[in-house]
Amino acid sequence: MALRRTLARSALLASVGLALSLFAGSASSQAQESPRTAVLKPSGAPYIDGHVHILQTQPEQAVNLLLDAMKRLNMAKAFIQTEPYGPDNPAPWDVELTLAAIKKHPDKLAPLAGGGTLNPMLIEAQNTGKAGPEVQKKFRERAEALLKMGAVGFGEMSIEHFSLPQSPIKDYEYAAADSPLMLLLADISAEHGAPIDMHMEALPSDTPRPADRGRRQTQARMAEAVHGFP
Questions:
Q1: 179-184: which pairs have CB atoms within 8 A and are 24 or more residues apart?
Q2: Which of 48, 87, 140, 154 could form a disulfide with 114 if both were Cys (CB 3.0 to 4.6 A apart)?
Q3: Phi, psi of 157 (to 5 degrees)
Q4: Residue range of the domain that includes 68
């Protein structure tokens, strides 16, 4: 319990807007001014973006594009995280694919991890009710391994996550904020002073939830669930 109370003093990152997604073009195009960043205008003061995604299949180019955008936006630092995957996603990935490129710029970039490995475990435990000692041991081992690799924290983790209509994977992710594995992650976070970036949904109006929380929904049901979003 003491560890959980200390979490309030750790640097918990909460995204207050949409993630800045930066996808790299060809390597040859990086030498020229990118039209994607040339139009950006600087903010009046330096700021930290706590929720950034990059294209994991071209991390070097993506990082270069991000650094150019940061310079133009007056962004002081960016926390780059993996996307939150559910247990049924056929192609999850985690920080191993982007870490080397991110670590070259420690003054500007910080890697968060676990979206592709810890988050599926969170959702699976919520769905099945299985979060006993063996599951918790496996979860802790993976979380601590990510920190040893060089991740500074965990993200993006799903408390509630809708798949928007344009997403190729139609699922609904839910894990209670006080579930056993989420509380364990809070303890690990407090032990290591590692922030957690959690994904939640802000609904524009009273919106029906999928009846079967945490399980794959039909496209029609998901369209109903995210009614009111662009």
A1: 179/122, 179/125, 179/126, 179/131, 180/125, 180/131, 180/136, 181/121, 181/122, 181/125, 181/131, 181/135, 181/136, 181/139, 182/122, 182/157, 183/4, 184/136, 184/139, 184/140
A2: 154
A3: -105, 140
A4: 2-24+46-225
Question: What pLDDT digit, counting tens, does each position of 195-222 carry?
Answer: 999 998 876 777 666 554 444 444 444 4
**Of residues 11 and 204, more confidently modeled:** 204
Residue 40 covered by a domain: no
In total, how many domains does the chain have? Answer: 1
Q: Classify 168 as helix, strand or coil.
A: coil
Is 61 within a domain?
yes
- The pTM score is 0.75
Query: Pairing state of beta strands 153-158 and 109-114?
Result: parallel
Give the dihedral sign, CA 189/190/195/198: positive
Whether residue 79 lies inside any domain: the answer is yes
Q: Is residue 10 part of a domain?
A: yes
Which residue matches tokens 């997403």?
167
Q: Can you tell me the distance from the alpha carbon of 52 to that of 204, in angstroms, rounded to the nearest whole number? A: 23
CA distance 19 to 16: 9
